[in-house]
Write a structure and sequence with these properties.
homodimer; alpha/beta; Rossmann fold; seven-stranded mixed beta sheet; four-stranded parallel beta sheet; aromatic amino acid biosynthesis (chains A, B); Tryptophan synthase beta chain (chains A, B)
């Protein structure tokens, strides 16, 4: 069997997979925070373009990928599916481990799959400026990259601690001409309200979302863009799984276990959703123990942001005011989860598992040593569980096929690995 | 025409191209520093494996790539050839600009093409440990990556200023289990001699080479590995140009101008050498104004290192004691150049051009804004000249085909871009 399975350009999917028609029950609708009634699509037009609202609600199973988006995807897509033969040998497991590698995109992660699509639809509807929030900077840099390619302006509210501790992702965003603002800021009412109470507030993703949404509402020709959680965001990521489907077919195997890490759910959904109707596959969503939304959260309506400006979503949540400890997998520090993923977990179709930070870095180091690729701290969560499952397969003598999503490289996270190697992590 | 031209796995070259039989005159032999006579191959066995010495002297035009090396290449090869359509539009040039992108390898540059081959041949001949030097860390991280995959030990002498200023490449090397020593160190005589004179010596590539060579000579089962300059190193890089040859054929174009940046010459040679016998192609080697080896150096025998431990090579050199200013393109700070490239420049087959640091960063930013990829500071030298040539083509209304090597991504160099954007560079 080949080590790496590539697809030709013309084998890149020309449509995304929409899970809405295949959910086990209808998705509870987003609620208007002013009325507590189902949100009217028109109201969402204050911050989203019509086409993305349509996709958010669509019941069509497949949605075509526009040529303009495909042209940019081609810069790094199709991405490789790689058999982790060296890791298998190291573990002495009979399992076959495959990973889909999304780290070859210019910003280094899966995030541009949706950033490019969102920038495109906004530009097409005449929007000239996008706002968003970012924690560690993976999403912000993806949107900066995408808006640049469509000649749009971009403002990123970056969680203040990250702004100061992780200057390099900020530089990356600025290289793509985005304006990066430490959040909470004085530029919005939501920001000022926080700063009045606590001038030294370190910020949080919830606060930054409030600022970005407020900015989009109040400014002309400006929309807001979200990097995870919403249906249309997860939809755009399914290009990952649709490619993987063809690649596994070429490899001549059927997956037994599919794994992805979860912050809001977009990289997990991207790999897994196109396989969700397949029988006999175990789907495992991996989250950090320190932000155990799916494993310890409540399934209920909650806000997406701290100030309560967003629609209410039915999801697993730790509460909108939950501030997760500053783990290095910044992309997994979110109080809620995608409503579609939450529903699948509630129905037991997807299993959730929480893992400890130190174990994920150990797994990441083993992966770097065997497969040669240094994974992002977020992705190490998937690796940790892939290793656990491969060892279980070894115990039972089973030739399981394990597939996980390597959502990004760790080249921007070497400080975290340094802390790990120096024994400074807990 | 396609934006990106990919090759299938089975189209990856199965042999390297050796330029020695095609040089315009026989290559002046390396000289033994003790006798000033041509170096006896046996003497090189103190630090190199037999097969690499054979390749260094070989007159065969093609040398097979071993399966074990190809298997690892497949992790990231074949690499894409991309048409820079957005850059062309920005420049409003009739020229067609293509770049070969080597930044998708796990260490992020072209360097593993030879690191993997060198580790393989050494391991095959029973060597258990390799030493080397590194400036900014691109080469050191490539060798750390390669030795890890062949279960070898690796010690990297890293120029002390870089060791302290660029901790992240060091962390990357340590993640792959290499031992990284700031140079000059107390571990070698060469290092101690420098430290006696100047305890605060910032180090240099020449000093670090002396330390690494001495370490290899004095320790059992240890060899030395060089990341550029030597024939066998440039040979291994030709996999780049051999792929590009097939890709340009698929694109249906013939190159008019081919461009690469030059430190020691390996990424330039990698792209260009397979095309060197082609008529009517202009080959441009780009170096920094601050280290103008090819444009202002002397063509004569000189040492590869500062202490004078290496054989003497006939090359363009600024003198073994030349210490280039601390520009950000650390990979281009070397006093000498590959003997084969020097000979081609002397014969006018390859033209050399020196460019200013500030201009290269401006070119890098334009490239990031248009093509979306943030280039390594080394690679921006090639981009700067590609842009210049595309503008010349525009002036003359010529549809030139310009091909350059994008040797690595700039994800580890964001501090340099930050300094540039803040106006701190000169």
């Amino acid at each position: 069997m080949e080590k790496k399975i590539m697809l030709d350009e013309n084998e890149m999917p020309d449509r995304w997979y929409n899970i809405l028609p295949d959910l086990p029950e209808p998705l509870p609708p987003p609620l208007d925070p002013e009325t507590n009634e189902p949100m009217k699509p028109e109201k969402l037009e204050a911050i989203f373009p019509k086409e993305l609202i349509r996709q958010e609600m669509s019941e069509e199973r497949y949605i075509p990928i526009p040529k303009e988006v495909r042209d940019i995807y081609l810069l790094w897509r199709p991405t490789p599916l790689i058999r982790a033969t060296r890791l298998e040998e190291y573990l002495k497991t009979p399992a076959k481990i495959f990973y889909k590698y999304e780290g070859t995109s210019p910003p280094g992660s899966h995030k541009p799959n949706t950033a490019v699509a969102q920038a495109y639809y906004n530009a097409k509807e005449g929007i000239e400026r996008l706002t968003t929030e970012t924690g560690a900077g993976q999403w912000g840099s993806a949107l900066a990259f995408a808006t640049r390619l469509f000649d749009m302006e971009c403002r990123v509210y970056m969680v203040r601690t990250s702004y100061h501790q992780k200057p390099y992702r900020r530089v990356l965003m600025e290289l793509w001409n985005a304006e990066v603002i430490p959040s909470p800021s004085n530029l919005t009412e939501s920001g000022r309200r926080i700063l009045e109470k606590d001038p030294d507030s370190p910020g949080s993703l919830g606060i930054a979302i409030s600022e970005a949404v407020e900015d989009a509402v109040k400014n002309d020709n400006t929309n807001y863009s979200l990097g995870s959680v919403l249906n249309h965001v997860l939809l755009h990521q399914t290009v990952i799984g649709l490619e993987a489907e063809k690649q596994l077919e070429i490899a001549g195997v059927e997956p037994d276990i599919m794994i992805g890490c979860v912050g809001g759910g977009s990289n997990f959904a991207g790999l897994v959703y196109p396989f969700i109707r397949k029988d006999g596959v175990e789907f495992i969503a991996v989250e950090p123990e320190s932000c155990p939304t799916l494993t310890k959260g409540e399934y209920r309506y909650d806000f997406g942001d701290t100030a309560g400006l967003t629609p209410l979503l039915k999801m697993y949540t730790l509460g909108k005011d939950f501030v997760p400890p500053p783990i290095h997998a910044g992309g997994l520090r979110y109080h809620g989860d995608a409503p579609t993923l939450s529903l699948l977990v509630k129905h037991g179709i997807v299993k959730a598992r929480a893992v400890a930070q130190l174990d994920t870095f150990r797994a990441g180091k083993i992966f770097a040593e065997t497969e040669g690729i240094v994974p992002a701290p977020e992705s190490t969560h998937a690796i940790k569980v892939a290793i656990d499952e491969a060892l279980k397969a070894k115990e039972k003598g089973e030739e399981k096929v394990i597939v996980f999503n390597l959502s990004g490289h760790g080249h921007f996270d070497l400080k975290a690995y340094q802390d790990f190697m120096e024994g400074k992590l807990s």
